[in-house]
From TrEMBL:
Domain annotation Mannosyl-glycoprotein endo-beta-N-acetylglucosamidase-like: ranges: 142-257
Protein's UniProt name: Mannosyl-glycoprotein endo-beta-N-acetylglucosamidase-like domain-containing protein
GO molecular function terms noted in the UniProt entry: amidase activity
Lineage of source species: unclassified sequences, metagenomes, ecological metagenomes
Pfam families, alphabetized: Glucosaminidase
Amino acid sequence: MKGFLTITVALIAFSVLVFSGMEVLRTHGSNIEIIYKDLASIDELQEMEFDCNAVKPVVYKSVISLEELAADERKEAFVKIVLPSILIAKNDIEKERKELLQIEKKISMGIALKDSELSLLSDLAEKYRSDKIDELLTRLNTHPPSIILAQAALESGWGSSRFFAEGNNIFGTWTFGNSIGIKATGSEARLSRYDSTLQAVEDYLFNINVGWAYEDFRKQRADTSHSLKLIKYLDNYSILREEYVRRLNNIIRSTNLEIYDTCRIDPAFIY
C-alpha cells in the first residue's frame, strides 16, 4: 500500500507511580508494567532471584561496572541486567507486528481500514522506511535473545566496559556529531549515551531492522529462529567480519545462551 496519509500521532497517555526509589511506568499501548530503577550495587543483583518463566520487567536507568566479578558471576549479573529490556523491546515489536498482520489481512480482503489503522500504517512506514507491507513485516520482526545477549556480551565485555557503566551503552554503539556522547580514549570518536538499558536495546533492534548492512539477516530471520544459523548473517556488524561471527558462535555455545530464548516476562506484570 503506497501513499500513506500523514496523520498526527496522538501522544500516548501514561501514569507514573514512584515508590521505594523505583518508578513503575504503565504505558497505554504496551501491555507490560515496567519498573525503572538505578542499579546501586552488585549485591543487589546477586540477591535478586531469577526465574526464566517469570522475568521481572526491570529497566535500569543507570548501571555499574561488573568488572570485579568472576566470569560466571559476571555472566549471571549481566543477564539479569539486560534480559528484561530485551524481552520488553521484543514484546513491543511483536505487538506492532501482530497489528500490521491484521491490517495486511484486511487489505487483502478488500476491507476499508479504520483511521487508527491508517495512522499506525503511516507511522510504521515512516519509522521503518518503507511503504510496502511485505517489507515492513520483514523489518518489523525480532530474533532470539541468545543472539542479542551474545552481541551485548561481546561489545561490552559482559558489562565491564566503561561505556556500559557510564552511558548504558550495551552494544558499543557509536554516535556522530553528538557532543553528549562518551568520548573514546585517545580518539575524538564518541559512543552513544542512553537514558536506560531499554533505550539501548531499542536502538540496537532498530538499527538491525532498518540498516542496509543487515538485509540478508532480516531475510533469513523470516525463515528461521535458530540462533547459530542466523549469526552467520551478522558479519557486517563488525569490521572483524567472519571472526566476529566465530566469536558470537563461541559465546552462545560456551555460555549456553540459548536457554534464555524461552524466557518470558512475569505474567503478574502484564495487563
